[in-house]
Specification:
By secondary structure, the protein is mainly α. Helices cover 73% and strands 0% of the residues. It has a single domain, classed as Four Helix Bundle (Hemerythrin (Met), subunit A). Helix 3 packs antiparallel against helix 4.
Length: 161
């Protein structure tokens, strides 16, 4: 198996994992609170699910660009993800750890755009893997924070059933 085939397999696996984690976050109930949850956290589940789908579309575009060596497609997918990461809907919590994950993701998407500009497929593929791992780790963290927050929220006995 050539290195390119291995990279392609890893990229395909990363998009599947990203999709699974994104869908998991989209299906979670969002608690309400003052410190940990952003002001617009009352966004409906439908709106959040739509936002997660848009993230998946941008991710798919980026992955397709990597697979066919279309640097414009890679850059556009990275640019969309970077822009989305600055939107209010992106923030499911507002603590320092979550902000660090978001900052790391934003930096990685900028590096992806740079790799596309320089037509460096290997660097772009590695940065995509970095972005995917950042997503997985952040989604794991966010699920843990939200579950903990939901369990500790007063008048929320349904989360304990």
């Amino acid at each position: 198996m050539s290195p390119l085939q291995k990279t392609g397999g890893l990229l395909a696996l990363s998009i599947v994992l990203l999709a699974a984690w994104t869908m998991g976050i989209a299906d979670d109930d969002k608690p309400s609170g003052k410190d940990d949850v952003p002001p617009k956290a009352a966004t409906s589940k439908k709106d959040l699910s739509h936002f997660m789908r848009l993230k998946l579309e941008a991710s798919s575009k980026l992955l397709e660009g990597l697979a066919i060596e279309d640097y414009a497609m890679i850059k556009e997918g990275a640019k969309q993800l970077n822009k989305m990461s600055t939107e209010e809907k992106w923030r499911v919590t507002n603590d320092a750890v979550y902000r660090n994950f978001s900052g790391e993701f934003q930096q990685t998407t900028k590096e992806l755009m740079d790799a596309a500009d320089n037509e460096n497929l290997d660097r772009a593929a590695l940065k995509w893997m970095d972005a995917t791992m950042c997503c997985i780790e952040c989604h794991r963290y966010a699920r843990g924070v939200l579950v903990t927050f939901e369990r500790s929220a007063p008048n929320n006995s349904s989360s304990l059933k």
